[in-house]
Write a structure and sequence with these properties.
By secondary structure, this protein is α+β, with helices and mostly antiparallel strands. The protein has five helices and ten strands, in the order ααβαβββαββαββββ. Strands 3-4-9-6-8-7 form a six-stranded mixed barrel.
């Protein structure tokens, strides 16, 4: 009842009469079985006065030993379960305190994969992504919309070496991500220095890139990374590898690989300058909860 209507299959979730009946039967049998055994044991003790002491004593000691072993095992297992549960809850609390580097609240994602038969070539794909973002921004309730190659914490990530200007081939390494639109604002990723992508970054313009704080500190620890250039990223098609990418901004680190993993060095390139991958659209509606997937039918 608390799940949003957009959860797939949520309408089919409900009580099943067979399952409910089976559960009730098992509960009754378990109650009778585990309640009957102690009752029979207690009733047997009542016959102690009519049985020879030796016979009752031998049998009683054996049974008391078995019941003591059973009781000790139950207490040990219960204590073990209690300790494990406490450690699990504490670990969960510690994980929830980790800052992921983004704000996923009230954000919806949509898989976007324009077919090659209809959108062949980079120009057609770039045009499609521009129209897609324009339509998303017009949807009622959408505050910001963007695109990314692989959403954070999605379990998919591409990394590669690249050439830093003046340092030779394979002098740098980082994860490679294609973004578009107002992605960083949509996901609540802070801009630390420089600028984000904007209308200046068209296909024919100078290729630019945004890097995260970890990459900036690792490759240019004592320098300003803005204006620095690199190229030959292994995950890019061959037609792009000789073009120098100029760093125009630095954003905060995002734990793309999981909350328990440290942030990796990352490169963000613009979808209009690198429209060669299927992407995922992200939209944010943080002022209300009116927005759901039924509002996002994009042709």
């Amino acid at each position: 009842a608390l799940a949003p209507a957009s959860v797939a299959g949520n309408a089919a979730v409900g009580l099943n009469a067979r399952v409910l009946g089976f559960t009730l039967v098992v509960s009754v049998i378990a109650t009778l079985l585990f309640g009957l055994l102690p009752a029979l044991r207690g009733s047997e003790r009542g016959f102690a006065t009519v049985l020879p002491f030796g016979a009752w004593g031998s049998t009683g000691r054996t049974r008391r030993g078995l019941w003591g072993l059973l009781l000790g095992s139950e207490v040990a297992l219960a204590l073990l379960l209690l300790i494990a549960s406490g450690l699990l809850i504490r670990s969960f609390q510690e994980v929830m305190r980790i800052e992921p580097g983004l704000d996923p609240s009230h954000v919806l994602t949509i898989d976007v994969a324009p077919p090659e038969s209809k959108y062949a070539g980079d120009v057609a794909k770039a045009s499609y992504y521009e129209r897609l973002l324009a339509e998303l921004e017009r949807v009622l309730g959408v505050e910001a919309a963007g695109l990314i190659q692989h959403v954070p914490l999605g379990g998919v990530s591409w990394n590669s070496t690249f050439e830093i200007e003046g340092q030779g081939k394979n002098s740098g390494w980082g994860h490679y991500r294609i973004v578009g639109g107002d992605y960083f604002r949509t996901m609540g990723i802070p801009l630390l220095r420089g600028r984000v992508f904007d209308a200046r970054d068209r296909a024919a313009a100078t290729p630019v890139a945004i890097i995260n704080e970890t990459l900036a500190k690792r490759e240019w620890p004592d320098e300003d990374p803005l204006g620095k250039r690199f190229r030959d990223i292994g995950n890019e098609p061959l037609q792009y590898r000789d073009a120098w990418l100029t760093v125009v901004g630095v954003v905060a680190d995002v734990r793309h690989g999981g909350l328990l993993r440290e942030a990796s060095p990352e490169i963000y390139v613009h979808v209009l300058q690198r429209p060669h991958r299927a992407l995922e659209a992200v939209v944010a509606d943080r002022k209300s909860t009116r927005l759901n997937s039924s509002h996002l039918v994009i042709s």
